[in-house]
Every structure is written in structure tokens, then in C-alpha cells.
Amino acid sequence: MPPDIEAIAEQVFVALADPSRRALLSELAAAGPATGTELACRLPITRQAIAKHLALLTEAGLVIAEPGERRRVRYRLRSAPMRVAQQFLAALARDWDGPLVALQQHLDKLEE
Amino acid sequence: MGFPDRIERTVELKQAPGRVWTALTTAEGLAGWFGDTATIDLRPGGSARMTFGEEHVANMRVERVDEPSAFGFTWHIFGLPEDDPRRTYVEFTLEPNGNGTRLKVVETGFAQLSEEAYKVAFDGNTTGWASELGELVTYLDAA
After folding, report:
1. Cβ–Cβ contact A52 with B under 8 A
2. In this predicted model, what pLDDT tens digit does every residue of B109-135 receive, in sequence order?
3. Cβ contact, residue pair A91, B34, below 8 Å
4. How much is the ipTM here?
5. What is the pLDDT of residue B140?
6. Angle at Cα A72 formed by Cα A71 and Cα A77, nearest 5°?
7. CA distance B20 to B69
8. Does the beta carbon of A71 lie under 8 angstroms from any beta carbon of chain B?
9. Sheet of B100-108, strand order
10. Do B20 and A96 count as a contact with CB atoms less than 8 A apart?
11. d(CA B137, CA B135)
12. CA–CA separation, B25 and A71 (whole Å)
């Protein structure tokens, strides 16, 4: 496993820890690429705050700025880091303790 | 943070390995404790399927059948999109323990991004996963 995989997952969780950034990512996921101005119209977040958060998300590789004229730059979601974080969550969510207890009980019941 | 690739559990069962084997590798057995319903074609490369509730389905591919000591399968990684080809490998090993069985389950592959697949994925290309899956299968066949 490349050592920076963990750093990538960490950046995803840091990004998701902030409600404004969650709202931005959700909006990009739901409605597709958008400019900062469009996002400011749709979300209860100021244009300045949006610029700040988009810069952080770009830095973290979670969104990518599509080339374009300065005020028309559209941002789109970049899913690769999310997939890395998802694998971490998948390991946490895989529950073997429950099924193994159920197996134990199933076998005991068959013996009765 | 710690990024687990492997989950390992051991459980001591009162029943002999033959009995435990049946619970792990037959449709009736699996439906008795794991899924709500189950089907299984018990041979390497065979398909198995379990349902949980109304909506959740687990499609498995049987990889290893060494009765009554080892049973392995691959399945979809929980939480990833349905069409994501990455899979984890689950292996049950059964060891006699007095009159009973020491059952170990190991699930590996949660951090299966190889250097190459990682690079491909981050170049915005997803074709890397198909070869990654091929590597996993080759690895499993060789094991």
C-alpha cells in the first residue's frame, strides 16, 4: 500500500468534517460541475467562504477546477480520494462478530 | 489513523469440523446463520449468493474448497458502488480442537490499491481495476 493512501483518506475525512464543505461536495455530486458563483446562489454560504473552501478542496484533490475564463471556472468532484476513504470505511463496517455469534448459536440449536 | 487491510477472527465451536463445514458451505447452512436466503455452487469458480432483508444481496465467487479444512470466496467490497470490480477475499479455516473446531475467518483486500492501480486510478482512469482484479484472482489461484 502506498504510504500516502492514509494521508489521502485523512484529507477526505478532514474535508467532510466541515458542514459547508459537505454541502459543497453534496451539491457537486448531486448536480454536477458548477462555478463558485452558481454554488453561492444555491447554497447558504457566502461567495468568499465558497472560494476558501473550494481552494482547500482543490488542494486536497477532492474537486478539480476545469480550465476556463477566471470567473467561469467550473469545479467538479473528483471521486478517486473518496474511493480510498470508502475502503477504510468498508473495513470498519464489515461485521464478522455478529455473524460468528449467529453461527455459534445456529450450531448449538441444531444439537438440541 | 491506521488503515486495516485484514480482518481476522477466531471462534471456538463445540461441533466437529464436518458439522461446521456444512454450516459454511451449503445453502441450508448459510441460510441458517449468515444470509436470510442462500444458494451455493460449491466448487472453485462456482457462484454463491446470499440475501439480507429485502434489498441487500451478496454475490460471491467460490475460490477454495478443501473439505473440511478450508473454504474461501471473494465478494464485493461493502460500501463501494455495485459495479466496482474490487473484491475482498474471505477464507475460513477449520482446525480440530478436542471434539470441537477452532474456526478462523480472515478477510483481506480492504486496502488492495497496488502502486500501479493507485496511479491509474488517480490519473482519472478506472480501467486499472480490471487488471487489479485479475492480479487478485491469479494470486488466489496460486495460493
Report:
1. no
2. 887 765 544 554 444 433 433 444 445
3. no
4. 0.73
5. 57
6. 115
7. 10
8. no
9. B6-13, B100-108, B87-97, B70-76, B56-66, B47-52, B37-40
10. no
11. 5
12. 61
